Amino acid sequence: MKITCGQHILDLSSPVVMGILNTTPDSFSDGGSYYQAGMLDLSLVLRRAEQMLSEGAAILDVGGESTRPGADPVSEQEELDRVLPVVDAICARLDIVVSVDTSTPAVMREAAAVGAGLINDVRALEREGALETAAQTGLPVCLMHMQGQPNTMQSAPTYEEVVAEVANYLAGRIEACEARGIIRERLLLDPGFGFGKTDAHNLALLSALSQLGPAEIPIMAGLSRKSMIGRLLQREVEDRLPGSLALAMLAAQRGAKILRVHDVAETVDVLHLQKIVGDYKA
Ligand code: PT1
Predict the structure, then answer these.
(1) Secondary structure (DSSP) of 187-211
(2) Confidence at residue 203, expressed as pLDDT on a 0 to 100 scale
(3) Nearest CA-CA partner of 5 in 59, 48, 55
(4) What pLDDT, on a 0 to 100 scale, did the predictor assign at position 32?
(5) Using CA atoms, how far apart are residues 230 and 14, in angstroms rounded to an integer?
(6) Which residue among 17, 103, 122 has the greatest number of ligand 1 atoms within 8 angstroms of its CB, and so is best to mutate?
(7) Helix 241-253 to helix 264-279 angle, to the nearest 10 degrees?
(8) Which of 27, 88, 97, 259 is most deeply packed, by most CB within 10 A?
(9) 221 CA distance to ligand 1 centroid (A)?
(10) 3-class secondary-structure state, position 223
């Protein structure tokens, strides 16, 4: 299973790691890491990008809008200012697929112009103009499910049948994409762990991960350091690595092809061992 991401070809025959690169001052676990005196420091971002590449990341996901629970929206200009210099700098220097974590058409268009290889949209191209813009870039798109909006989504998430509802929603977005010329070979699906979901909802989605969509569309999963791990294991955000690794492995076992994580080296080790054990013939 291969997918063309701009200049790069991404091989998803076994699961790969997407390293998280947040250029926001307020992300839940690594917010502000690349800021010096209130300014985004490109050299710090590049150092981290190089490190994640050397640790085995196949993709780097660059985002300028925090979408963790409770986060406030960001202006288009702010997002452009945070994301574009980073995408540009990485694409100019490193041989890696750069994904842009955005719902904003202008960011999609400009990021694609400087070399981004993937659009990761937590709003599944629902914003005005996003479907058309994403279609024009020719890039693959990850469609994620979210109930509500980040600042309020965790107040009272409600579903009658969470797996069926998420699957139906994603089926509708696949249809909307195909109607605009974004063929399904260009799509990825993501259940959106923690996006308007209780722990029970997240667990139901994890256990039914492979039933979220058509078998030929790869699934992406983002569980790294999320609050579900904190609640289930009583762990603060800095102590969620073991939980994150366990969930990454379980997601891969259930069919996820892209794992979106903070801890690249550790997750690459887990997936590597999983492959060795899976391939072993006694
Ligand atoms: C994700 C994801 C994402 N997650 C995709 N993109 C975030 N495709 C940003 C918590 O409960 O899963 N898939 N982009 C980060 N969002 C959250 C959500 C962070 C919930 C933290 C929590 O702690």
Answers:
(1) EEEE--TTSS--HHHHHHHHHTGGG
(2) 98
(3) 59
(4) 82
(5) 28
(6) 122
(7) 40
(8) 259
(9) 9
(10) coil
Nearest CA to ligand 1 atom 9: 67
As a whole number of angstroms, the distance between CA 14 and CA 88 comes to 28
Distance 19 CA to ligand 1 centre (A): 13
Chain centroid offset of residue 178 CA: 21
Which contacts (CB < 8 Å, 24+ apart) does range 112-115 have? 112/6, 112/137, 112/138, 112/139, 114/84, 114/87, 114/88, 115/6, 115/7, 115/87, 115/88, 115/91
DSSP state for residue 238 in the 8-state scheme: G
| Dihedrals phi, psi of 222, to nearest 5 degrees | -120, 105
Torsion of CA 144, 261, 10, 94, to 10 degrees: 120
Ligand 1 pocket, residue 69 CB under 6 Å: yes
Catalytic residues: 226, 260
Question: What pLDDT band is residue 37 in, cutting at 50, 70 and 90?
Answer: confident
Q: What is the tens place of the pLDDT at every residue in 165-199? A: 999 999 999 999 999 999 999 999 999 999 999 99
Nearest-CA residue for atom 20 of ligand 1: 194
Task: Give the torsion through C-alpha atoms of 202, 149, 48, 220, to 10 deg.
Answer: 40
Query: Residue 89 — φ and ψ, nearest 5°?
Result: -65, -45
Domains of the chain from N-terminus onward? 2-276 (3.20.20.20)
Which pairing describes strands 219-222 and 256-261: parallel, antiparallel, or unpaired?
parallel
Q: Where residue 125 falls among pLDDT bands split at 50, 70, 90?
A: very high
